[in-house]
């Protein structure tokens, strides 16, 4: 199990398209992924409803936890998605 | 068979009916007679079928719509949602009920977050309905997609349905419910969709029936004869030619100009209005800046929006209406006291006078935007009932740098003393929707009294005539900025009553322009005289129609 804390890069936060891209990648990874807003409860990273209902905005700190499979590669890919500004 | 309703616009359409499935009732909360595992399989199967449908619709749509539909597909079989459904099935609920409750719990969660999230809450309702419909083996609610152009028949359309309406496929729109001010009617007017609303008997139409939707005559003709279809097609071709004709300034047959202006609610519609030949803006509503706000927007923010609008109409007239709010459109910083009769309450100029700082800031922002642009800015106040209010508004507007200040005539009192009102300001603009509501004492939003909301009523026309006469005597412009100006025949009557400009939804400009060009100033006066002398709205319309036919027939015979 590995984890990392990053800041959200998308201008409009983790809603709509960025949330879709993230959960799609989390679901496709095969690993168990959770995401939590600082101080919040971890939720299933493959669930778009769980992710958008966290109300994660631009600049928020979130912690990713990946368990199973090629953990490092999955974590790197997901972190990359969170840092990118998809709303440009 | 002929079905009557209220036509929106002047269009005609011929096509086959596709009915919109109605919203499903809430599934009953009763114990399931299947075991939770079987119910779970049913739920999962329907969720994945709906997800696959949404994915394939997304692939077909492409672009931004594809992202939205793919996100909806993911929601349809979201793992958290599956857990929520499974929990409820364990408690012995049916798959339908469990799906309904699981979606509703997330819908409430998102709605509570406000803003963008709250808007997505409606998406969840839509997906929920699709899954439940599949479980019940019923057609999915929402706008159908038969794969060919069709006439959509619905009870009424929800805002979410209208957003997904494919205008290349929908030839016409018929609703069983709804009146001329319903959401569907407003959309149809904006998008120039041929529509009949409030056609109660249209509930008898079936999928595949051929119908003629004749908005100009308020009729849906089912099972039409070959001759009727041919005549309708000829009219469709004639209208297409009219739309393709070069756009000219509004004028009567002898060349007397009648400027045709646009009603706009934000700067977004400016390009489309200009394309359709708007010679300026006759009513720019400013409420969009204030709604959904907890505090009034700053002078700088307002100035930026007004500058955007005025820049789009450089060299043209733009009539801006200051904030028109009251208990019917409550704004917490203006007036949020509940009132028994909001239409008769603290609204329009009354509310602004009560919170003068808001009016001062708006006028200041407008004057600054005017100074920075080349449009000709006129500013008017809504809900004027007295000469005193007129003097108050024009004095304040002039003090803050507005060059042309006028009033809206929406109350019978303002119309009845129009000579005094016009003497105290630069121009008047008649808001026919409210003037009709107040003259007929009939709430314009109430379906049960919708029949009284007819600007053809001679009582309303006489008030307009009073204002027109006062304007002519004092040499001051009198515009019309209500839906009445969008009715091509009534537009001629209004000019006959003394209106010097007409402002309407941009989609109505072409029809009104063509209609005005058929009549001379004397013809317009004759039409107006006939309508004024009638005893009721229907009789006034018939009388004006009779005079109009006489004039056009005589002219054809002469040529």
TrEMBL record, chain B:
From the UniProt record, list the reaction(s) this protein catalyses. L-histidyl-[protein] + phosphoenolpyruvate = N(pros)-phospho-L-histidyl-[protein] + pyruvate
Family per record: Belongs to the PEP-utilizing enzyme family.
| Keyword set, alphabetical order | Cytoplasm, Kinase, Magnesium, Metal-binding, Phosphotransferase system, Sugar transport, Transferase, Transport
* Limits of the PEP-utilising enzyme mobile domain: 150-216
Task: Report the InterPro entries cross-referenced here.
Answer: PEP-util_enz_mobile_dom, PEP-utilizing_PTS_enzyme, PEP_util_AS, PEP_util_C, Phosphohistidine_dom_sf, PTS_EI, PTS_EI-like, PTS_EIN
Per the UniProt record, which EC number(s) apply here?
2.7.3.9
The UniProt entry, under PANTHER family, shows: PHOSPHOENOLPYRUVATE-PROTEIN PHOSPHOTRANSFERASE (PTHR46244)
State which gene encodes it: ptsP
- One Pfam family linked to the record: PEP-utilizers_C
Coiled-coil residues: none
Give the function comment from the record: General (non sugar-specific) component of the phosphoenolpyruvate-dependent sugar phosphotransferase system (sugar PTS). This major carbohydrate active-transport system catalyzes the phosphorylation of incoming sugar substrates concomitantly with their translocation across the cell membrane. Enzyme I transfers the phosphoryl group from phosphoenolpyruvate (PEP) to the phosphoryl carrier protein (HPr).
Q: Per the entry, which co-factors are needed? A: Mg(2+)
Q: What is this protein called?
A: Phosphoenolpyruvate-protein phosphotransferase
- Which residue numbers delimit the PEP-utilising enzyme C-terminal domain? 245-518
């Amino acid at each position: 199990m590995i984890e990392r804390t990053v800041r959200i890069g998308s201008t409009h936060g983790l809603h709509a398209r960025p949330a879709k891209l993230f959960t799609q990648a989390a679901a496709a990874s095969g690993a168990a992924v959770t995401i939590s807003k600082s101080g919040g409860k971890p939720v299933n990273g493959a669930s778009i409803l769980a992710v958008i209902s966290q109300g994660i905005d631009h600049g928020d700190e979130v912690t990713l936890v990946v368990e199973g499979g090629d953990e490092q590669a999955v974590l790197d890919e997901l972190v990359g998605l969170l840092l990118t500004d998809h709303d440009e | 068979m002929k079905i009557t309703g209220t036509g929106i616009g002047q269009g005609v359409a011929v096509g086959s009916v596709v009915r919109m499935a109605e919203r499903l009732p809430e599934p009953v909360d009763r114990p399931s007679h299947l075991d939770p595992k079987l119910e779970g399989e049913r739920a999962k199967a329907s969720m994945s079928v709906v997800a696959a449908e949404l994915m394939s619709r997304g692939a077909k749509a492409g672009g931004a719509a594809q992202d939205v539909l793919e996100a909806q597909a993911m929601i349809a079989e979201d793992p958290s949602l599956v857990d929520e459904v499974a929990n409820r099935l364990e408690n012995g609920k049916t798959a339908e009920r469990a799906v309904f409750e699981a979606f509703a719990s997330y819908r409430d969660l998102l709605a509570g977050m406000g803003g963008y999230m709250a808007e997505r809450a409606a998406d969840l309702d839509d997906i929920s309905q699709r899954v439940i419909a599949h479980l019940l083996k019923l057609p999915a609610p929402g706008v159908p997609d038969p794969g060919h152009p069709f006439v959509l028949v619905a009870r009424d359309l929800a805002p979410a349905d209208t957003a997904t309406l494919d205008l290349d496929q929908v030839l016409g729109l018929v609703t069983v419910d709804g009146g001329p001010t319903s959401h569907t009617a407003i959309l149809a007017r904006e998008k120039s969709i041929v529509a009949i609303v409030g056609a109660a008997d249209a509930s008898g139409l079936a999928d595949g029936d051929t119908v003629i939707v004749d908005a100009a005559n308020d009729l849906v003709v089912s099972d039409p004869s070959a001759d009727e279809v041919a005549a309708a097609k000829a009219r469709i071709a004639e209208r297409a030619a009219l739309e393709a004709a070069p756009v000219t300034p509004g004028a009567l047959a002898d060349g007397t100009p009648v400027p045709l202006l646009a009603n706009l609610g934000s700067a977004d519609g400016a390009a489309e209005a200009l394309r359709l030949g708007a010679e300026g803006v006759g009513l720019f509503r400013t409420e969009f800046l204030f709604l959904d706000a907890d505090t009034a927007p700053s002078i700088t923010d307002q100035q930026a929006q007004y500058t955007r609008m005025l820049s789009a109409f450089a060299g043209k007239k733009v009539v801006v209406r200051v904030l028109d709010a009251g208990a019917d459109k409550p704004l917490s910083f203006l007036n949020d006291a509940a009132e028994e009769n909001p239409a008769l309450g603290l609204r329009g100029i009354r509310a602004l006078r009560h919170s003068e700082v808001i009016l001062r800031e708006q006028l200041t922002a407008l004057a600054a935007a005017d100074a920075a642009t080349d449009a000709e800015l006129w500013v008017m106040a809504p809900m004027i009932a007295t000469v005193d209010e007129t003097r108050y508004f024009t004095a304040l507007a002039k003090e803050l740098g507005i060059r042309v200040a006028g009033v809206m005539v929406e109350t019978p009192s303002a119309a009845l003393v129009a000579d005094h009102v016009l003497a105290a300001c630069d121009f008047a603009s008649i808001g026919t929707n409210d003037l009709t509501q107040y003259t007929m004492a009939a709430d314009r939003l109430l379906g049960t009294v919708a029949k009284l909301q007819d600007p053809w009523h001679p009582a309303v026309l006489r008030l307009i005539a009073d204002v027109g006469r006062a304007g002519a005597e004092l040499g001051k412009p009198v515009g019309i900025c209500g839906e009445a100006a969008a009715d091509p025949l009534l537009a001629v009557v209004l000019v006959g009553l003394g209106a010097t400009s007409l402002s309407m939804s941009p989609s109505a400009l072409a029809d009104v322009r063509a209609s005005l060009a058929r009549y001379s100033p004397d013809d317009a006066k004759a039409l107006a005289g006939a309508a004024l002398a009638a005893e009721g709205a229907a009789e006034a319309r018939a009388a004006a129609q009779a005079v109009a036919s006489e004039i056009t027939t005589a002219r054809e015979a002469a040529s």
